[in-house]
Amino acid sequence: MLKIKEGSLQHWAIRIVGFALLALLVIYIPTQSETARIGQFASAFTLIIAAMSLNMVLGFTGQISLGHSAFFGIGGYTAAILIRDHGWSPGYTFYAAAVIAFVVGCLIGLPVLRIRGAYLALVTLAVAVLFPTLLRWKKLEWLTDGAKGIDSVKYDDLPVWPILGELKGRDGRAVFSYWLGLLVLVIVYLVCRGLIRSRVGRSLIAIRDNETAAAVMGVNVTRTKVLIFGISASMCALAGVLATLNSGVVTPDGQFVTLLGSIIFLLIMVVGGAGTLSGPIIGGLVYVWLDNTTRGIGTDSSGVLGFVFGWTDQSPATLILGLALIVIMLFAPTGLMGLLRKLTRRIMTIIPRDISPTQ
Amino acid sequence: MSLLKTVGLRASYGQVDVLLGIDIDVSEGEMVVVLGANGAGKTTTMRAVSGTIARSGSVVFDGQEIVSQSAESIVRLGVAHVPQGRGTFSELTVEENLRIGAYIRKDSIESDIARWYETFPRLEERQNQRAGSLSGGEQQMLAIARALMSRPRLLLCDEPSLGLAPLVTQELFEVLKNLNEQDGLSVLLVEQNANLALKVASKVYLLETGQVVASGSAEAIAGDERIRKAYLGG
Amino acid sequence: MERLLQYIFDGLSFGAIYALLALGLVVVFRGTGHLNFAQGEMAMFCTFIIWQINDWGVPLILAVVIGMVFGFLLGAGTEATVIRSVAKKSPGGVFVVSIALFLGLNSLATMIWDRAEGYTMGSLFPNKPLDFVRVLGAEWRYKFIGVLVVALALMGLLFLLFSKTKFGLAMRSVASNPESARLVGVPSGVVLASSWGIAAAMGALSGALVGGINGQLTPSLMFSVFIYASAAATLGGLDSPGGAVIAGLSIGIGEQLVAGYIPGWIGQDLKLSVALISIFVVLLVKPSGLFGSLKVERV
Ligand SMILES: Nc1ncnc2c1ncn2[C@@H]1O[C@H](COP(=O)(O)OP(=O)(O)OP(=O)(O)O)[C@@H](O)[C@H]1O
Ligand SMILES: [Mg+2]
User: Fold this and answer.
1) Closest CA to C174 of C188, C160, C163
2) Can chain B be said to touch chain C, i.e. do they have 3 or more Cβ pairs within 8 angstroms?
3) pTM for the model
């Protein structure tokens, strides 16, 4: 087993190699793979962002929310309405969506975060269920187009240049979505990281571990909770904007606008590792991969899967997802991130610098 | 005849070893007291006997090895444990607490309830009150009465005097002494109030960091100058 | 007046069903401190089992009983195998597992009973056009009366079980203090598994009743019922069985009243929303429901 000092030459070497590999992969995907694959990654990015936003609230602060699909929807609808009805340029809708979702998030969070535990789960569940009915509401049809939703959200100023390399049969829009998604993802990741490493982050974790103790230590619990809920909502809205830009459609029963969306964000966060910064990234990639590989299993598949699932016409994707989730909770309750850490610890340990007596 | 005998009893919480091999012997009808500083492992010893913690070594109760048995089955053999901090069911009424105390019994329990109400009249006055709303002393009485409802042969009693007024403590010890002398109930008692404990007990074990450092008859321990200084406060 | 009475009759029956499912949530929550998100889907799955057995030629009433037994085994088995070991490692993980069950059971039902238009579900009670009594001018249909009676009877039995039997006392003792319960000899494993089992069996019955009222069976049968039931459990207090029943019945009646008297500018589609928003308001004033105690916090 290797022992490496933090900040030593080897440590930096590992970091640089890791980063280079990651960069290579990130460039490889849009320049070398097919349009469909690129699209999958683009949609993975939006889900990762949504899961990251949930992670701030649930993973780091310990406040459960099943209502994030509503914030996702707010982002999606903001973009769609501003672009289609008001002729906005897509780029600016990110700012608008973030601000609106922040305000709505704080408004919902202010009363709701008094409620705790299982009650909070059920109240936010109600938010998730209410949101689509609100979108369908006749009185709001002038804004949301009711049940049929808003489609053909077009934008003309979409750059078709591939950013890196040539398109060579790849769809320019998919490549653009990929880079745009990646950009937002990186920004959201950096914001999360900054928050967690700041004083705010320590307050969040203090609240999660023991709210009363945190309050005694001088953390303004209510303000911190509401603020982080608002920030989280606006991050989730960014994911919603991305989804709308990618697909050009938003409807009240779109997968991520309904309760199912909240559930998926939660799963991604848990599978990756709740309360870790990179957990949602791993979780999101695994989810999209699992979703795409299992979606096709059915009557026509062969081999073991065909044998097991040959009797049904329906896709067993969700069943497999559910089973996978149970297996993860049984054998790796800290998620894939926790598993990964355990594995790397077998191979090497990074010895932290001397902890200075002042914090 | 030995009713309870532990040999090399060990227990740990996660990585931390708390009991490092405890040998304790309680004879039929005897009242034995375990003394020791905070954190010495007294509570853990009791839990290891009653089966509420994983342990190793040997615990023989009434000729039967019980070290690998569960708490649910050990109580059926006749060991009742009054845990430190009482552990009453606060949402249940006083009477329900007594009834659940007799969970393992199939025969009629009404006469037992009546008997413990007689011993602790204050419980009878509050029989329909939720246990959580009782005073500390009343809860301790309830905890003991609940344990006795299973008609045990050995009573494990962990710091019954904790937080009680001296007068109530006196009263409780009187009850324990009577049970021991008149009903022949064997008692393994953990107590901080050493002077009081030494008066009622016949045998004493002194625990220090998970080990028995001294043991003997109550008189011998009480008479030992060195032990008095170190443990019994002069 | 006649109209009002009609709404109350219909509301009572729906409310009784919500209360049944909500009681399931409460039984599990009180016993183990966990929120079973799959309560509705377990009920749906059992209802399909009931339909299937009935379809094989077994009389419906017998099929319902078998379905409830199946539900008990499903619930108890889930607790004993998965839930318990997850709970040991991470208490929050149980909620995630229940979400996984929610997804898995729904998907499995879709795979097995794979027909878009659903199946016709028989009613346990007479259900011809003229099967009703008139009370003060309002029609009280036999099937609604039947649902109400059966649901209330089961709830009554449950209350007897909890308050009058030794097993009920054991269940409450485990909920109150698991370690002390073991010390008095209560086999906590059996008790915990049973609370999940009982909850799932009640779910099976509520599923059969909903199916009978709707006359139709699809995998989405229980979803909105579950939302109402969770609203009822929240409103009444997650650890208060009485609260769940009162809240369930009130939500059922309230739903009918809102649907009947709703002002035009809101419109029918917001019926569910009215229920949910009113619960919201209650929770803001009392964060642990109307009849719940404050100490409960776990998910
Ligand atoms: N649940 C637990 N998890 C981890 N460590 C524990 C636990 N309970 C006790 N310990 C540790 O085990 C040691 C012995 O504890 P124990 O409760 O047996 O002491 P005690 O002699 O009963 O003390 P006191 O007189 O304060 O009741 C202590 O160092 C304590 O910190
Ligand atoms: Mg102790």
Assistant:
1) C188
2) yes
3) 0.88
